[in-house]
Specification:
Blueprint: E1 3-7, H1 12-22, E2 27-31, H2 48-60, E3 68-77, H3 91-94, H4 103-114, E4 124-135, E5 138-151, E6 167-169, E7 174-175, H5 181-187, H6 189-200
Parallel strand pairs: 1-2, 1-3
Antiparallel strand pairs: 3-4, 4-5, 5-6, 6-7
Helix pairs in contact: 1-6
């Protein structure tokens, strides 16, 4: 590899998505060193972009001279005016729904409840990711990627995570949770965000 980026995440799923998209660019993406020992900032932005920038700027201060990327991503459902959006991971918790249960399961159950009675034509949604790159506490660039789909009435498939069992891809006639890993990587909203960011970084 001829160039290296540091990602402010310990999520193996996110790292996998980023790395798969970056391989063709002779680019190495590694988790930020000692990330687990760094106190996390409060993600209080109202948009994906605000939170991605907040994290990239914050964590870049712990890696002087290095290029650090951070993302914020989630599900936007048109019939819910873009919700859960930046609250995707905490959707159920925000409403006290499913306390003590599996987070993904609770989020999915609440989404099904909120869309009860909404016809398929109005259940359009997208996975969106915004990436920010920063160095020494200064934002350099942002980029985003998205995958369009439709929210199912009930879960379909056992793979993936998050809202994948409810996120249906009409072009492939299956949910995100039914895709094999190789196919899913080609559709990754995070992967698309990386591909949009790299040219801005001159890569």
């Amino acid at each position: 590899m001829s160039f290296r980026l540091y990602a402010a995440t310990t999520s193996q799923g996110k790292l996998r998505d980023f790395r798969a998209a970056a391989e063709a660019h002779a680019l190495a993406i590694e988790p930020l060193t000692d990330l687990k020992t760094i106190p996390a900032p409060e993600e209080d932005g109202l948009t994906f972009a605000a939170n991605a920038i907040l994290k990239a700027v914050y964590y870049s201060r712990f890696a002087p001279g290095e290029l650090v990327i951070a993302d914020d991503s989630g599900l936007e459902v048109d019939a819910l005016d873009g919700a859960p959006g930046v609250r995707s991971a905490r959707f159920a918790a925000d409403f006290g729904f499913g306390a003590g249960e599996n987070t993904d399961q609770s989020n999915n159950l609440l989404l099904i409840e909120r869309l009860k009675g909404i016809p398929a034509a109005r259940r359009t949604a997208r996975y969106r990711c915004v990436l920010a790159a920063a160095r020494d506490g200064q934002t350099l660039h942002t980029a985003e990627g998205a995958v369009e789909g439709v929210i199912l009435h009930s879960p379909q498939g056992s793979g993936g995570f998050g809202y994948d069992p409810l996120f249906f891809l009409p072009s492939l006639n299956c949910s995100m949770a039914e895709l094999d890993l190789a196919t899913k990587l080609t559709l990754s909203h995070r992967g698309r965000a990386i591909m949009a960011l790299l040219p801005k970084l001159g890569l």
